[in-house]
Amino acid sequence: MSTEKTQIPIIQENVERRWQSILAASEQFPQFSDYQDDIKQILALSPFVGELIATQPKVLAEILEHQWHIHADAASLCTLLAEQLENVESEPNLLAALRQFRQTHMAALAWRDLTHRQTIETSLSQVSQLADALIMGAYHWLYANLCERHGTPQGPFGPQPMLVLGMGKLGGHELNFSSDIDLIFAYPLKGETDHPRKPLENQPFFTKLAQKLIAALNKITVHGQVFRVDMRLRPFGESGPLVAHFGALEDYYQDQGRQWERYAMIKARILNPSCRYTEQLESILQPFIYRRYLDFTTLDAIRDMKQLINKELRRRQLHNNIKLGPGGIREVEFFAQSFQLIHGGREARLQSRQLIHVLHQLVELQLIEQDDIDTLITDYYFLRKAEHTLQQFNDQQTQLLPDEPWPQHVLTQVMGFEDYASFLAELEQVMGRIHAQFNQLVAEPGDEAQQHDSLFTRCKDAWVVTMTDVEFSQLFETELAPDNARILFDQLSDFRQSLSRHRIGQKGEDTLAKLIPELLYFMLQQCPGDTVILFPRLCSVISAITGRTTYLDLLHENPNVLKQLIKLCARSEWITEQIRSFPLLLDELLTPLYLQQQQTDITLCFAEYNDELRQALLRVEPDDIEQLMEQWRQFKLSQQLRIAASDISGSLPVAKVSDKLTALAEVMLHAVLNSAWGQVTEKFGAPGHLQEGEFGFLIIGYGKLGGYELGYGSDLDLVFLHNAPQDSITNGKKAISAQQFYIKLSQRIMHLLNTKTMAGQLYETDLRLRPSGNSGLLCCHENGFAHYQENEAWTWEHQALVRARSIVGDTALHDSFMRIRQTILQRQRTLPALVEDVVSMREKMRQHLLDTKADGLDLKQCEGGITDIEFMTQFWVLGYAHQFPALVKWTDNLRIIDTVADVGLLSPEQAETLQSAYLTLRDHYHQLTLSGVKLASQTDVLNEIRQQVSALWQSCLGDKRTADNKE
After folding, report:
1. Partners of 181 in the beta sheet?
2. Could you say which residues of the chain have pLDDT below 50?
3. How far apart are CA 617 and CA 264, in angstroms?
4. DSSP structure class, residue 185
5. SS3 of the chain: helix, strand, coil, percent, to 5
6. Distance between CA 872 and CA 797 in Å, rounded?
7. How many CB atoms lie within 10 A of CB 747?
8. b/e map of 204-223 (b: 16 or more CB within 10 Å)?
């Protein structure tokens, strides 16, 4: 645009003129000559700095004396300004002191900035720190002055301050060089000052203070201006009072606060030092800004704001504006703050005023890719550096690209380009990338070719147009068979009628009018052959959330979530029921972690779940038991859904599904024991025989939990042990015997596990395997447990012991239990009697539990089913562990079968057949659970497996029993 030849004379002429002015002062400041090159460099880059140092040599001398770094940190700035204001005795002198202080430090900052003595990140922070110092310095002087005249407003925590809220870039410590500042003022309580003769009501006192503070900063004098002050963000805008008390603020934001005000408040920062009053104001603003739920109702407002931005771009043609133009600074800020409004209520890490921190957190939360954020941050800082350079030229608030040669030359040099055209080319790419990210934000839900899709148009007609079943069938004749079309028509009609019985309000109706056509559209795209089963499932979910428009918005605004919901409901009635009962699970579909690589090692799963639970509980007060129980249940539901979805997607084999469900249950039991222990010891103290860190307590898992084979919805078979001496009592104020203590602990654990909250039960539990069953003590002494197992337990109880292991508790009790288990399982038994007991019990179970008239296979209880395999493994352990101790090592069937083969009781081929059969049957059983079906269809594959299992049963138990009976 402009050539170097035309630029140099212009710059040289101005530089030389100002240099001569500076030389004229060199007698007083001889050091100026030593810095000739540095001074001439800044004279060429900033007429603002040049004019200041040429007319005020003392400023130049101070900058050079401190090597450009005069009081660049906030604490030093505040201290220095406070010292300078100590001797100020009038408001005119205050205004002069503030302006001179501002000019000196702004000049030093611009010098550092333009000559690359610091980064743009540092410059943004320092401008904000300088602003804080100036605003609060003026405030403190004026407050003290008014208190001398009118008395001090008093409150419950001492003198009441006027709290100054810095908005926008000031609040975010990102203030640009020449900026106006947006402020909001508030004071705590109504009342009056403590003046002994003429007290003044707090409202006029603080109004005077606000007016004086605005004038001190905003007024243009011979010394210039500190900051342009904008108060339009206060409640009721320009028509509202300059300063409001906390009660009025709270009422306003509760009843009348609008979405754009929430957006503006994200960066609001109280500039006053922290105190009880600042805490009160924070507690008022926080719930207004960040909703506790995932706030998708905000999206309409965000979309409206985005549309306004785009309309403004088209109307004003702001292509040369690096802040407001397409791809400008405003779009980066809007991008980050939109995510904060939507997700900030649930994700505390997004509740930050600093844009860069928020962008990094979007990566941590897996909302945006790392590369995209890295590019966005780099591009943002490029624009901020260009903005600073433009404003430091003449200390003017501008974001417009210059037309004049001199500022173009400065921009080119400071930004590091060979010529202005190269800078413009890079700027175009930077703003293009930012605008592309901006355009991806809250796109219209129908953007992805839906609106022009014939199928989508027909789906809209199906929902809004009154038609007959024949017309409906004709409408979807390419997607649906006639019978299925008629069934879907009836289902849709019934659903529409059922909605009329719900009071969902206008907003809910509007959202449903958009959502249902989308649901039909994706359903017919993804699963046209499953609509008869699928649509009622989807309707059950929609019906469950019709009164909660947040979730309707979530599905409408996020096509990928809707697609995932359709996929999961198509595959699983169980998942459908989970989501229908607990709609909070819809949040999980926003970031479908089950589509990623799964951790399958059970030890690592335990560690992973333990860490995730710990993070989830950071927001819960430890003594808030109700919230703790709710959070446990939500965590378990979410993790269980991820496992089931991974199962459906095929990324987890059945054994690993059980491993993950088992690890999840163990983590929850650890958490429950720790919480229950804290609650009971708080009331009664701990048993006196314990050492530091001991419980004297053990939770034993039986059955599927003990065998690492939990399924969806499995209950937990538990037994509780303790090792307290008979005379042990607790050490609390309300002392009880240790036996009573452990019974109360067990009761508390059961309460925490079994109580139904809004998120359901944590786990259903069964304690019937404890000594003496339902008539026994809830918690048994280890000696009593050993005695019972040795002298009173039935064979079936020893079978149950095969699949028992310690879950959580003390190491000493764990070792004791393992010795008892090993002793009992390795006891030598008479094989004929054992065979008779095992087979008789199996027959009784089948008679009692198997419905012989049912139309389908009960994979657990049928001949050749899952329970037959479990009974065989238990028989081998009880019958041969005295001979082969390795048989008692494992509690899960697969590894027991491996060991049985290792010791020669089965051939490797038989073991492989049995393990394959067991895995296949369990996989089918898992899938039946997910599908909401209890019985399997008889297939050739299942029949062949059952025959193989029955043959092994016969050779293992049947033949032995026959032989024994003949004898």
Report:
1. 229
2. 1-7, 445-452
3. 30
4. E
5. 65, 5, 30
6. 15
7. 14
8. ebbbbbbebbbebbbeeeee
The predicted-structure confidence for 237-266, as pLDDT tens digits, reads as follows 888 899 999 999 999 888 778 777 888 899
Tokens of 378: 């780099």
Q: If we measure between CA atoms, which residue out of 91, 191, 189, 101 comes closest to residue 146?
A: 91
* 628 Cβ contact partners less than 8 Å away, ≥ 6 residues apart: 617, 620, 622, 675
Q: What CA–CA distance (Å, rounded) separates 35 from 56?
A: 16
Burial of 568 (0-12, 13-18, 19+ CB in 10 A): buried
To the nearest 10°, report the CA torsion of 646, 649, 652, 653: 140
Say how many Å lie between the first and final Cα of the chain, rounded. 111
- Residue 811: strand, helix, or coil: helix
Can you tell me the distance from the alpha carbon of 18 to that of 15, in angstroms, rounded to the nearest whole number? 5
- Of 944, 892, 872, 902, give the one whose Cα is nearest residue 656: 892
Sign of CA dihedral 242, 246, 248, 251: positive
Q: Cβ neighbours of residue 67 under 8 Å, at least 6 residues apart?
A: none
Helix (H/G/I), strand (E/B), else coil: 200: coil
Return the SS3 of 25. coil
Which residues fall within 8 angstroms of residue 596, CB to CB, at 6 or more apart?
Answer: none
Compute the CA torsion angle 815, 821, 826, 832 (nearest 10 deg).
Answer: 180
**Domains along the sequence of the chain with CATH:** 66-255 (3.30.460.10), 298-440 (1.20.120.330), 454-591 (1.20.120.1510), 638-825 (3.30.460.10), 831-966 (1.20.120.330)
Q: How many CB atoms lie within 10 A of CB 300?
A: 16
Judge whether 517 and 459 are in contact, CB under 8 Å.
yes
- Rama region for 95: left / alpha / beta (φ>0; ψ in -120 to 50; rest): alpha
Contact 651, 593 (CB under 8 A): no
pLDDT at position 457: 82
Question: What's the predicted TM-score (pTM) here?
Answer: 0.57
pLDDT score, position 712 = 85
What residues contact residue 389 under an 8 Å CB cut-off, 6+ apart? 113, 114, 410, 411, 414, 415
